[in-house]
Amino acid sequence: MNETMTAQEVINQFEKWAPKHFAYDWDNVGLQVGTLHKPVHTIMVTLDVLENVVDEAIEKGVDLIIAHHPLLFVKLSQINLDTPKGRVVQKLIKHDITVYAAHTNLDVAAGGVNDVMADLLGVKQTKPLIETEKDSLVKLTVFVPESHANELREAISEAGAGHIGNYSHCTYQLSGQGTFKPESGTDPYIGEQGKMEYVDEKRIETIVPKTKLPAVLKAMEDTHPYEEVAYDLYPLLNEGEQMGVGRVGKLDEPVLLSTLVERVKKEYQVPHVRVSGNLDKKVKKVALLGGSGEKYIHAAKRSGADVYVTGDMTFHMTQDAAEMGLSVIDPGHHVEKVVCPKVKQYLEDHCNGVGNLNIIISESNTEPFKVI
Description:
single chain, alpha/beta, Udp-n-acetylmuramoylalanyl-d-glutamate--2,6- Diaminopimelate Ligase, Chain: A, domain 1, Alpha-Beta Plaits, 3 domains, 5-stranded mixed sheet, 15 strands, 27% helix
């Protein structure tokens, strides 16, 4: 195991889960401040990058901050060190702390913000509330010596190949004989220069989402013993996974709206919520969207949802929802923090086998509201 990873290597692993192209065009995801070309030892996961968070990062010797909300969301015309934003940037640069943001790409990603919110409430059989795009699919066919077939199959499956519905590691293989003649300047794993070789090989076929293809090809090349890997890629007409923001799904059993309210408070760890609707009404189908989701109340209604869980609901939009017969639970914008443990776990699972990292979640409070 390597002693250290670079920030770029960490982000490469992270973007296998939440690639930047998942984000909306208006969003500013990715590197915010600093450099990715440096070793990292301590990573802090946070919802926001405010001055108290940066002070905590300095105190704890953090090298890389991975935030949900971009530090530089609005285009800057100046960096004024007399402003809170300017002081934050100054401290980050002075203490060599890199900041990376995963915003709407983490909202869209499977297992990201909205899926965590749904899982906590027991909302199942989910699909996107707002569809963005469908991931296109390709078929990968690779030829590998029998001795390395199982290792290669495992590597490409772990990198994202071979997922069909709720099944993983889906491949098909045939046995055959590969032939090749190493020419001058080669360093063959099997055989000698100028001599024809006949090798018992496996032909392994699998399906790969196009967004996972770079990671799958890298895993294939890293695992394959040959100097030159023989493989084919075929575009497919099969439709890939539907991606989008928000989620719509169902509870196992109908519950009173008041019961769901208490579940939201408990699972999202918030002391209060705002509610619109009949608390004695039973609800089963739930739409939800982390962050600010009031503009999607019509989509929530069209989905057949009984209740919509989202933050930043305004007076008139909540009235509109009520008139449509759509109950609303507003736990605030800050509940997106529930994704932080998932990000920490993902990094531990995918990076600590490569580098020795200390991954922490910020303990600083960035919720601006208090209810008195």
